[in-house]
Amino acid sequence: MLTQKPASRAIRRPSTLVIAAFVAGVLPFALHTWAALHGSFAQDDFVVTHQAAAAGPFDLGYLFQDYHGHLMPGGFFLAALLTWWAPLNFPLLVLPLLLMRAGATVLFWCLLVRCFGRRWAILVPFTVFTASTLLLVPTLWWSYGIQLVPVVLAAAGALHAHVRFLTDGGRWWLGAFAWTLFGLAFYEKAAVIPVLLAGVTVLLGRSFREHARYWAAQAVLLAGFVAVFFLVTSSQVGQGAQPMSAGTVADLTGRMLGDTLLPGLAGGPWSGPGPGATWAPSPFVVVLVLLAVALGVVLAGARIGGRRAWGAWALLATLFTVDVALLALTRLREVGPAAGDDPRYVADLALSAALCGAFAFLPPGSPAGKRERPVALILSVLLLISSAVGFARLSPALRFDHSRQYIAHVRAAVGEDPDLVFYDTFVPSEVVHEWFGADSRASRVVGLLPGTHFDQPTSRMHVLDDTGTPHRVTGVDPVSRGVPGPVPGCGNAIGETLVRIPLDTPVLGRYLLKLDYYTSDGGEGLVERTPVWFQAGLHTLYLPVDGLFDHIGVQLSSPGAPVCVAKAEVGKPVTQ
Q1: Nearest of 522, 504, 526, 527 to residue 561 by alpha carbon
Q2: 305, 385, 403, 533: which could form a disulfide with 40 (CB 3.0–4.6 Å)?
């Protein structure tokens, strides 16, 4: 009896459309990944990681703090967890963002397929989303990426679950709520996700009455978050000298539209970066061309999609208006209309614009057209090329080479000499701006590096320069000197009894104390209540001091040979 072999299962090969979508998703992601892994910390990144190390991942006061008007417990939790795992490890810190970005890309493709079917036309909005420099560039800055990227992932996930719920029912509504909560944990702009869900419901031609309890729960969720947000935060409305008028708001709106949103959706701008995180304004001719193209897209969509298209454009206009209003209220008085050149304030619209454009041109469930493939391929290739050029010009400004160099120099110096002690100074504004106050000190910027020591008593004090290179302190530029001691050939003889060495001038502020001393035997002591070790022989001791004082208190901690303090000086460090 012959045994019949089972037929081999056919291997289903991916379609040409799926391969094209894979390329459209992977190429921009690869560029972004390379730049992110070669980037560095900057500005708020150091503030957040320092707070994370001090608080830990389960400190509710840290997680739910009012951070410049933002409520982001999810971001703080992730920062604390990864800082505990490996302090100041930037590739590790950006890895979750890259995974979330990849997840958002897959979910957005699934959303487009679910709404419009597997057709070539959806490749265009998909490429608009994946290749938009609005998402590729600003998120290189970790502090902003940890806000926006989770919200983009949450929006894509919530929309996909929502559409599945509308079509299939079941428990997909749980996914919509879970994704929304996930986004709200990272950035308050996730509050627009329910608005997106409602807009997509209308564009799909579904009635709100079909799922009344679902929408009531969405309203309760949104109201609850708004209540918590305003209860916890108190600095939402910006204060400053810049006026807020119809003219400044119009200027702000024009910049947000012509300098950031439209160029960013097209893969630009191609004019390069501006100051800080901003983009340089595009030439006026380029702005006019972009506005004309945008108007043509709106009218073409309206002609093809009719009422559905106008609804999609109205949804996008509403979301843009929300962004303008938020920026005007929170930053216009502080920064002025130039805040509109910062892509961070409209980056959340990349997904919304791509989705609204798809709804404007593509009726859900309609058959594919005959000329979709060549048109979709041409437009997608142009978008990818434009994005590659724009990203190459914009991304170097947010890789923060100065910060990376600063950290690398300190790490190398400590690795070479683990006994180094640094006098704490302020870092360059390119690393952390001085408006952060004490958070811009070197101890809070690189103090988490293993083996770093700041402001400890030592005979070999060092100061970090603007590049993070240590320089040995050879003395101080004195603002006050100790009065010579009464013991001939010794100065001030120090024993177990506290000796107060008077200063010739009272001192107020933060300075470096330099003590020249001699002792025949080493021993422990106290200088201004700070434990120190006096080495046998003739030595110099450096110790940072801060406050208002007119004398220096010195004593030994236990019986031993006396210490002769020949000279005491207080001043700013002088390096070799």
Answers
A1: 522
A2: 403
